[in-house]
Amino acid sequence: MARATLYVCMTCKAGQPVTEGALPPGAQLHAALTAGDPPEGVDIISVECLSACTQGCSVALTKAGAWGYVYGRLSPENAAEILDGAARYAASENGLVPWRERPEIFRKQSIARIPPLGASPAILTPNARKVSA
Amino acid sequence: MARATLYVCMTCKAGQPVTEGALPPGAQLHAALTAGDPPEGVDIISVECLSACTQGCSVALTKAGAWGYVYGRLSPENAAEILDGAARYAASENGLVPWRERPEIFRKQSIARIPPLGASPAILTPNARKVSA
Predict the structure, then answer these.
(1) Residue A45 belongs to what H/E stretch?
(2) pTM score above 0.95
(3) Do B75 and B25 form a contact (C-beta atoms < 8 A)?
(4) A9: helix, strand or coil
(5) How far apart are CA B59 and CA B44, in angstroms?
(6) Helices A25-33 and A79-91, interaxial angle, to 10°?
(7) In this structure, is the dihedral angle defined by the CA atoms of residues B37, B43, B48 and B53, taken in order, positive or negative?
(8) Chain A contact for B102, CB < 8 A?
(9) A130 has a chain B CB within 8 A of its CB
(10) Which residue of A55, B51, B75, B78 pairs with A72 in a disulfide if CB–CB is 3.0 to 4.6 A?
(11) What stretch of H or E contains B83?
(12) Rounded to 10 degrees, what is the CA torsion of A104, A101, A121, A69?
């Protein structure tokens, strides 16, 4: 099973002014996510911008052969749920964690997803119900 | 240079009710994008959902070793601009087309982007100006 990467946008201001010397919200989220050990199979890596600034704070999940996901409107309080979702993503076959097993923020705060490179029509157009996308 | 894939969400309703028998807005966008020859180096592939439903219609651009991008709030009238942006993306080193060379809709209607797998810190945190993200 390929390892998953959880990218955390470090520079996100979440639409708020940041007091000089204070950590931007994105850096606060990164600190919360890396306060303990990372989940099994997950590397947590900081990135400067995920171009989701109007929906920050944001994170992206990706791994070889899997759908990549971007989630937004996140805060440090969501850290445990994000890590739980990342662990389930890492353990999945192609990034598609069954709908009911996803943390609520992953169900409700997905910004977008990108198909795996070279994905088959069966993966791209399974005629799946929209709710499980 | 790796080929780029332009994924088009076929099922997108763009938040509107679709009259029975009418093509959903996503399928209309796909038809507009595939009406002529695809740009050099670009494959255009349909997909059922990019999980960007609140910002549809949407497309995703991806290629091996490159940042993946998702764009939204698109309509068939944007087809030429999307194809131009896809061609520039395909010709780029790692998906990063210089800001001024991007079509306006790519500058203004980016929903999110995902780093390339195994990207180096130089790519992930270049301390680049946010405007070029």
Answers:
(1) strand A42-47
(2) no
(3) yes
(4) strand
(5) 10
(6) 60
(7) negative
(8) no
(9) yes
(10) A55
(11) helix B79-91
(12) 40
The answer to whether the Cα torsion of A31, A36, A39, A41 is positive or negative is: positive
Question: What gap in Å lies between CA A89 and CA A66, rounded to an integer?
Answer: 9
Quick check: B130 pLDDT over 80? no
Q: Which residues of B touch A128 (CB under 8 A)?
A: 48-49
**What is the dihedral sign for C-alpha A43, A29, B108, B29?**
positive
Q: Cβ contact (<8 Å) for B70 and A7?
A: no
Strand order in B68-71's β-sheet? B42-47, B4-9, B59-62, B68-71, B110-114
pLDDT digits (tens, 9 = 90+) for B39-88: 999 999 999 999 998 899 999 999 999 999 999 999 999 999 999 999 99
> Which backbone phi and psi does A99 adopt, to 5 degrees?
-45, -50
CA–CA dist B29, B60 (Å, integer): 13
Residue of B5, B53, B125 lying closest to A48 (CB–CB): B125
Whether the complex's predicted ipTM is more than 0.85 is answered with yes
